[in-house]
Specification:
By secondary structure, the chain is an all-beta fold. 0% of the residues lie in helices and 51% in strands. The strands form 2 sheets. Strands 2, 4, 5, 6, 9, 10 and 11 form a 7-stranded mixed β-sheet that branches. Strands 1-3-8-7 form a 4-stranded antiparallel β-sheet, with no helix packed on it.
Length: 112
């Protein structure tokens, strides 16, 4: 059974950092490109970052470039998103994605 389980969300002040993790099981993680998406209240889901199956290529939406870093550990079947210099506009539910499969999400709230 395929599972994607996110963790690491929470409340952080502007300028702070959080590290999100996605634990994957039930499929060949090392052969799968992985993505992070986010959805703020009242807004459409938005692509955040991509990492290819080998980890050799990453891509980011413009608004997070230079602040967020996506990474993966194929030995542990995990993917992370290091988020630095967080802004209130980063507040959203963050979900990991593997093709047509989605995790439940983890809430990130950036507020003073």
């Amino acid at each position: 059974q395929l599972q994607l389980v996110e963790s690491g969300g929470g409340l952080v002040q502007p300028g702070g950092s959080l590290r999100l993790s996605c634990a994957a099981s039930g499929f060949t993680f090392s052969a799968t490109d992985m993505r992070w998406y986010r959805q703020a209240p009242g807004k459409a889901r938005e692509f955040v970052a991509l990492i290819t199956s080998s980890g050799g290529t990453t891509s980011y939406t413009d608004s997070v470039k230079g602040r967020f870093t996506i990474s993966r550990d194929n030995a542990k079947n995990t993917m992370d998103l290091q988020m630095n210099s967080l802004r209130p506009e980063d507040t959203a539910m963050y979900s990991c994605n593997a093709g047509v499969f989605w995790g439940q999400g983890t809430q990130v709230t950036v507020s003073s």
